[in-house]
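Dear Dr. V.,

Thank you for agreeing to look over these. As mentioned in my earlier message, I'm a first-year student in the group and I'm still getting used to reading structure tokens, so any feedback on how I've presented them would be very welcome. I ran two proteins. I've put each sequence directly above its structure. The first is here:
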Amino acid sequence: MRALKKPRPPADVSPAGQDARTWRKTEEEFLAGLATAANRAAYARTTFDSMEKRKLRAVMYREQGELCVYCERRVGEGHPTPRIDHWRPLSAAPEFALHWKNLYLSCATDSTCDVHKHESPLKAELADPDLPWPVDHAYERCVGFTSLGEVYVRSDAPLNEAQRRALVLALGVPHDDEVKDNGVLNLNHPKLVAARIAALDSERTKMERQYKGKTATRDEREACKAALLGEEPLQEFVSIRTRWLDRSLGKAR
């Protein structure tokens, strides 16, 4: 999970053959109709499903560097079509069904991320506010990784207590291979942990080849980190790669 920028929604969200509709106009009409809808969640779902998802994804691929907003698997061309996730669930917050800041691409796997989250809110208690959107919070400062590929909430994360509880609940705690269902997003699933270790091995191999047995300086590692973050699209599991480059991986439990 990382902070993201969402500059602007697609200019036209109508299916082929229909009159063009801007995102802003569609959202304005939706909110007007929502005010009198008998079933707000059903109305929100019907309106959202009427939009041309291909046009939404085309913009969101670029915004997210072709990575899942949660686990950072690849979601670009040649991969299963990603889901468009409502960060604040549509059923609980139908007023945000077409709010651009509330929509993110999530991988299509059946054991983690949006499929696992489904309609669960990203909060510890129902009275708490939802976790901030990635466009409003620097999650790369909150999420840490161990050298064994596990994800956890950093002790120095810029979060209040309610947000910390919610993020811990969302990520799931580090665990052994026997635990395969952990947390709202289940980001410590064994397959994800193994994939992160493979990403670390890839970075080590690349550095060994580049520096041929020499130890890279801090400035050289920072340059490699900046280069990684500047790639388009981003490499899978870019966050654990950059954590390794700046030597800030946590200790495995």
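The second protein is here, in the same arrangement:
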Amino acid sequence: MDFTFKEEQQQFADALRRWIDKDYGFEARRKIIHSDAGVSDAAWSQLVELGMTALPVPEAQGGFDGSAVDMMVVMQELGRGLVVEPYFATMLGAQFLKLAGGQEALLEQVASGSLKLACALGEQQSRYDLADVATMASPSHTITGTKTVVVHGGQAGAFIVSARTRGAQREREGIALYVVQRDAAGVTVTDYRTLDGQRAATVRFDGAQATPLRGGWDVLEAAADYGNTLLCAEAIGAMDAIFAATLEYLKTRKQFGVPIGQFQALQHRMADMFIHLEQARSMAMLAAVKVSSDDAEERRRVASAAKVRVGQAAKFVGQQAVQLHGGMGVTDELPAAHHFKRLTMIGLTLGDVDHHLERFAHEPGFTAGQ
């Protein structure tokens, strides 16, 4: 499979990498995550200036109408650079708006960088089942309920919220989508830092007024698959970085008077890491190509297969990197430790390996005779 990006895509990636190397290095990032805000307004402004927020937005709303493959280029660099700004949450929210349609004004704000979004989908009891929704929506479009682990919920100006209008708690029928403004009456946000340095929030809605979006479960599922595609791309960037750091360490760390990279056993482990990484890269690219497919069954299969393979690779590559670095592999001072934490959190976002393996197995055609 050809992983060569187009010239303009590579230029986009190069511009983003230059900014990260110059202004968003490891020490700069540590200062940001330990600040009260946990994010940087200056960094967000730079992402806007580079055109990152406009990339997936339709041209009619001031964007570049970028594809999922274009977004893969960006997410890889953000993963490599451990960027903690609310980019993923906002772009996932923008995908909801695009799929629902009729939200041109909000998309224009996203493209300009003036609006950050967060997707309030999960609940305390739901784990990875996005259909397990207890939050209720009234006929007058008021929302009551609590959403948990809302990625960058504390930094958002508006929320994409799943709520139930009818049906039992785990039924897909009756799920509707809404936009709720952060400053709406009845919205309470509790912000906190996660183990990978990102931010998340518990968001409580007490009769908060909402704007309904078109579409229900179908839009929710399609947007979640798109989100998983972005996460897979970010994981590839993080694994690229952790692999390169481990290889460099093996070349410089000496034992018995020679670099430990000369030991054949460690060379074999690096080869295994490389194989896992390249297989994951193949699946991430396939997901980026297929996530916009008109065939919903194909989209679901590929998105879940990618999340499974990337999740397996992330665990293997991360664990091997920590072991090959020795005790320092888990220290806060080493970027590899932070990459491993981020890879772990990616694996737990929008469904882990077991969840997507089960989802893949339940898709038509998996069992012989279907």
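From my reading of the second output: The chain has three domains: 7-114, 118-215, 218-361. The longest helix spans residues 217-252. Does that match how you would interpret it?

Kind regards,
E.
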